[in-house]
Amino acid sequence: MSDLLSGATRVHFIVGDPIAQVKSPAGVTQAYHDHGRNAYVMPAHVSPAHLSAWLAGVSLAQNVDGIIVTVPHKFACAELCATTSDRAAFLHTVNTMRRNADGTWHGDMFDGLGYVSAMQDKGCTPLGKKALLVGAGGAGSAIAHALVTSGVSQLAIHDEDTTRRTTLVDRLAGLNLCPVTHGSADPTGFDIVLNATPVGMKDTDPLPLVADKLVASQFVGCVITQPVVTPLIAAARAKGCPTATGADMFAKVRDLMVDFLLAGRY
Q1: 136 by DSSP, 3-state: which?
Q2: Domain ranges of the chain
């Protein structure tokens, strides 16, 4: 890779708080090089209080073409985009931004599409299934939308932030595609059980749901990429459940993000 780095290199960032856990810089950079592009992705550790100022600053650099957005900035970055896809506009959240011709930012959200694709690769088809989703944040909102539009028969959403949960439930219920309800940490009765929270990144974290109640017929997923096998995934596998990890999701999301960013200006 290093022989491509020069003054002509196009710069992309991945921004988050924290940022040390992300895998995108190497994976997306390699994907650019596989496409013959001289571009690199660099991590940026930026607090929410400084996000707007940071974006204004990096936007002044004419060789900065794209930004990948991770926790906790997905909602805030949607507000900083001049334009978005219809999907991102509905969700009010983005995970990828590319330059418009006038230098402003255009955002889209691929977490949901990527996770559903990863599930399908693992043999889980959402159509007709009852799903429980823990987490109504940026990734959770996108996954919830993707599950509903993929044909689940019912979606229950659980989040400790009841205002955020209620907002997401009401918006998705308004699509009239399936019943969308307030869930709990109890996975009993669901075919699909997904964790879309950061709970499980730290050794001291509790489980995001009642894993003792999982049964082998349930498909269990988690969005966390580090550790690859979270305590929830380990508990699910011990019960005999098929699973999808955050790394499985990332591989799919990366391809969607790269296609989106490569379509931008260079």
Answers
A1: coil
A2: 2-109, 112-249
Type of residue numbered 208: P
CATH annotation of 112-249: 3.40.50.720
Known catalytic residue at 130: no
Q: Do domains 2-109 and 112-249 have the same CATH topology?
A: yes
Q: Which residue has the tokens 């599950």?
A: 147
DSSP annotation string for 210-242: -GGG--TTSEEEE---SSSS-HHHHHHHHTT--
Of the options 3.40.50.10860, 3.40.1030.10, 3.90.1700.10, 3.30.465.10, the CATH number for the domain spanning 2-109: 3.40.50.10860
**What are the tens digits of pLDDT across the range 79-136?**
999 999 999 999 999 999 999 999 999 999 999 999 999 999 999 999 999 999 999 9
pTM of the model: 0.87
* Tokens read off for 251: 């591989």
The C-alpha atoms of residue 111 and residue 250 are separated, in whole angstroms, by 8
Q: Which of 132, 112, 140, 143 is nearest to 210 (CA)?
A: 132
Amino acid at the residue 129:
K
Which of 74, 122, 129, 130 is labelled catalytic?
A: 74
